[in-house]
Specification:
It is built from two helices and no strands. With 64 residues, the protein is mainly alpha-helical. It has a domain of 40 residues. It is elongated and about 65 Å long.
């Protein structure tokens, strides 16, 4: 058995164990998904807010 096959088998076992854990602890898994989604949305909102603030600053300087 070479190293690549060993890594593939370990990844498959980890994924299988994660799926089994997800079925057994569905409420925790959903909470994890919600936290990940909220973090992603908040990062997008922060980026948009920074863009809007930068646009206002640059447009204000051009007018002055």
């Amino acid at each position: 058995m070479n190293t690549a096959l060993g890594l593939v088998i370990m990844a498959q076992l980890a994924l299988t164990m994660f799926i089994i854990w997800g079925y057994m602890h569905e409420d925790l898994f959903v909470a994890l998904e919600n936290r990940m989604f909220a973090r992603r949305v908040s990062r997008r909102a922060a980026k948009k807010l920074r863009l809007i603030v930068n646009e206002k600053r640059t447009s204000g300087e051009d007018a002055a």
